[in-house]
Amino acid sequence: MSTYEKVVMVDFDGDHPQDWPATRKWTIMATIAIPLFLMPLSSTITTPTVNAIADEFHPASTITGPLALSLFLLMYSMGPILLGPFSELYGRWPVLQIGSFFYLAFNLGAGFCTSMTQLLIFRLLSGIGASASLAVGASMVGDVFRKEERGLPVALISLGPVLGSCLGPIVGGFIAEYTTWRWTFWSTSLATGAFLVQCLIVARETYAPVILLRKKAALIIEANRQGKHDGRVWKTPFEKDETVGQLYRRTISRSLHFLGTQPIIQALACYYGYLYGIVYLLLSSFSELWTTHYQMRVSTGALNYIAPCIGYAIGAQICAFLTDRVYRYQVAKNNGVGKPEFRLPIMVPASLLVPLGLLIYGWSAEYHTHWIVPDIGIALPLMGATIIFQCCSQYLLDTFPVYAASANGAVYIVRGFTGFGFPLFSPAMYETLGYGWGNSLLAFLALVIGCPIPFILWKYGERLRAVSNFADQTK
């Protein structure tokens, strides 16, 4: 802590979150991984129960079943636009705990609903609370890990969402066959309650500006207690001369501002959003393939969701093994100077896995081949998407470290709409084009949209960062 005239600068004295012991860092990562797994599981767990819900409530439209998934996904993806800036104002853990409690209340209510309208409203509101983990998860990695250490923790927190969204239908399939659909909500509510109890034990703030604000408040209280009223002004390196209201209005609009003005975020949001829509289109329609076209029981058909789980897991392990190694290799080639663009090389083969897998899945399903072929087909695009999601998250963390939550929030705007919309049009697409041509269309668009992006950012990323007022210029 240093002083100049009557200004006292409050800073870290060796206790920065990035200097914490590895055990504390990984305890925090393991804790945040729980809701990052549980909330996506909650999004897809209702997929095999759509018919059971329809039998009880008799909805007027066939779109109502997929809407229960889409409404949750919309709020799950859009919520960080609101909650991300909150985390930059008040800290990561308060946002995570309050959001999780909000999810718990409305998810539990969905299990007791008496009409389809109530169910859809509860799903919409629970999605907002569920998004808290999404709003702070990637940012917490940037809080406690240095950029050359982020490959493995990003792989961990990225594995939870993708595995959760795949395991959800498996759990839901057995619930649909052996008990009531209401247990899809009650079981996830019980798990969330256990997580909130764990938070009370291990929670520790990770966001440096908030930690210093709390440290400043404690120092002011101590100075007042000792009667040191000498007109000193206490400040932290992150403070600006703004009121809380002004700061909140600025941060809440920053995600939209990023999306409208930052080409890096625009490119990544476009590709990320398209892949996210494809993932949930595949997951929402996968159960229908096995129960209707392959005539399997609900629980047996749900076991095919193990295939996308495997694809996700392999993609995450590839990232955990390669990203930091590739980054360090590129840094060594660049005379020890790191750049965010060094996160991009493994996006190139991953961007080819997506269209390849879609073609295999689509045409094998079209011709009713052995079940293993569609399973292999669906695993490939999910493997590629997992790698791309993690590379995008790491690139954003390195490019916008101070504004990571808002940068991710900008990407979530686009992915929220695609995650909402794609499952709704998939039944009509497959009915009109079939699995073969329907997935061929998706594969072609994935090729056109995705393959050029890593090359464009590799060539022009540094220039784009140089003209940005928000990007970190030190990398």
Automatic annotation (TrEMBL):
The chain crosses the membrane at residues 26-43, 63-83, 95-114, 120-142, 154-175, 181-203, 264-283, 303-323, 344-364, 376-397, 409-430, 436-458. It is a multi-pass membrane protein. InterPro entries: MFS, MFS_dom, MFS_trans_sf. It is found in: Membrane. Keywords: Membrane, Transmembrane, Transmembrane helix. SUPFAM superfamilies: MFS general substrate transporter. Residues 28-463 form the Major facilitator superfamily (MFS) profile domain. One of its GO terms (molecular function) is transmembrane transporter activity. One of its GO terms (cellular component) is membrane. It comes from the Eukaryota. Pfam families: MFS_1. This is Major facilitator superfamily domain general substrate transporter. It comes from Penicillium cf. griseofulvum. The lineage of its organism: Eukaryota, Fungi, Dikarya, Ascomycota, Pezizomycotina.
